[in-house]
Amino acid sequence: MRWLAWVVALALAAALLAMAASGRPGNVAILLPPYRIDLSLNLTVLLLLVGFVLFYVAIRAFSLLLGLPRAAALFRSRRRKEVAANALHESVMHLLGGRFRRAERAAGKAAEADAFKPGALLTAAQAAQAMQAYDRRDAYLEALPLAARETGILLQAQWQVEARDVEAAQAALRRLSSGMQRRTQTMRLALAAARALKDHGEVLRLATTLRKHHGLHPAAAQAMLHGAALGLIRQANHDAEALRPLWKSFDPALRHDPQIAAAAARGLYAAGESTQARGLLVDALRAPDAEPAALMPALRSMLSGIDAGFVAQAEAWTDRWPQEAQATFLAARACAELELWGKAQQYLHKALDQCQPDERKLRGQIHAALARLQERIEREGQAARHWRLAAQDLSTDDASAGGSI
Questions:
Q1: What 3-state class would DSSP assign to 357?
Q2: Which residue has the higher pLDDT, 183 or 74?
Q3: Backbone phi, psi, residue 375, to 5°
Q4: d(Cα 216, Cα 207) in Å, to the nearest integer?
Q5: Which pairs with CB-CB distance under 8 Å and at least 24 residues apart come from 336-340?
Q6: pLDDT beyond 50 at 13
Q7: Total tally of structural domains belonging to the chain
Q8: More confidently predicted of 335 and 76
Q9: Residue span of the structural domain in which 402 resides
Q10: How many helices (H) does the chain have, and how many strands (E)?
Q11: What is the CA angle 280-285-288, rounded to 5?
């Protein structure tokens, strides 16, 4: 349909021109002595238009003729870039496919174009690294333009981490600019190096930052934070002065972690800070999602020096977890610590009833605690019976570790 529209438009234009020309009968006289040329006005206008068109075509042809060398140079440049782009694509595909020699050759060809030189040299360096051609790899990195040097350093740090040369990797990462050091890949490499060197403080900082910016899977980040926190507590080595600021530096999620809270409490208790040690575990138990089965065994071993307020708290926990044998056992131990023998015995029997079939170790500990209580109130027959029941669930060492009343 488009060609039909053009035909109609041209026909209409021709008709309009014919109508306009028919109403102009004038002549144009051109005097060139001794000659005189008479032309109609319409022919003169037509000749002028044709002359203008021919002049314009001649100027354009001359301009194109003068621009041929530049056009040829642009064509050759575009062709080189196309060849380099294809070579770089081929190099990347060979590298990912494990054909490292071909990848290196194709990258060398792509590096001939300045626009693709940084990417081509980095690809060639990776291929040389895969072939353990370290001299060629270093040469490619040295040839990088200044703008791509930091990318080369980051790549080199990655290779050093993979080779377990973590100290060199850390030194390389420290050479990066502050902006480059805040990138996710840089922090991941720094985290891997810190974990290899057991730098728990740095692991804690980097894992926290990466989790905040979604640079690590939440489960992996949580596992690293957990391990780093436990490592820092172990490094404190039962030093109360070191443990206090360390504990305050942990975020609430770590402070409510049962294993971390128990480890920190044991460290403070070993340092003679029994009240503060119990306070850590009590705070963890106040959390809405607290795990009494994980926290209360550690708390049972730290009851020396408790008062009636702690006993009231322990009894309140039995109301919060009415089916939890660990809570009832803790209340019994707290009562026994203050020589409330009757209540202690009552709680111990209740804890036995709450024990699940798979909680053999806990049941044995409760029987051992009952045996010790009976010995304290001089009921040797009852004590012997509970010792026999404890022996069925525990070894001799486990029965002794059941806790003294």
A1: coil
A2: 183
A3: -65, -35
A4: 8
A5: 336/369, 336/373, 336/405, 337/303, 337/304, 337/306, 338/306, 338/307, 338/308, 338/311, 340/311
A6: yes
A7: 2
A8: 335
A9: 306-405
A10: 23, 2
A11: 130
Task: Say which residue the tokens 């050091």 belong to.
Answer: 181
Distance separating alpha carbons of residues 275 and 283, to the nearest angstrom: 12
What is the spatial distance between Cα 131 and Cα 402, in angstroms, rounded to a whole number?
Answer: 60
**pLDDT (tens digit per residue) in 128-186:** 999 999 999 999 999 999 889 999 999 999 999 999 999 999 999 999 998 899 999 99
pLDDT surpassing 80 at residue 29: no
DSSP 8-state symbol, 23: T
User: How far apart (Å, rounded) are the C-alpha atoms in residues 221 and 227?
Assistant: 10
Say if residue 221 is in the same domain as residue 289: yes
- Provide the 10 A C-beta neighbour count for residue 160: 20
Residue 379 has pLDDT above 50, yes or no: yes
Domain boundary among 283, 302, 321: 302
The last residue of a domain, from among 261, 278, 302: 302
**Beta carbons of 297 and 326 less than 8 angstroms apart:** yes
- For residue 62, the one-letter residue type is F
* Per-residue confidence (pLDDT) for residue 400, from 0 to 100: 42
Residue 366 tokens, joined:
């409760």
pLDDT tens readout for residues 83-99: 888 999 999 999 999 99
CB 263 within 8 A of CB 230: yes
**Which helix (H) or strand (E) is 6 found in, with range?**
helix 2-22
pLDDT surpassing 50 at residue 404: no
- Please state, in angstroms and rounded to a whole number, the distance separating the CA atoms of residues 81 and 159: 30
List Cβ<8 Å contacts ≥24 apart for 34-37: none
In a domain, 44, yes or no: no
CA contacts within 13 A on the Cβ side of 374: 17
The tokens for 324 are 């939890």
Is residue 130 in some structural domain? no
- Pair 204, 297 in one domain: yes
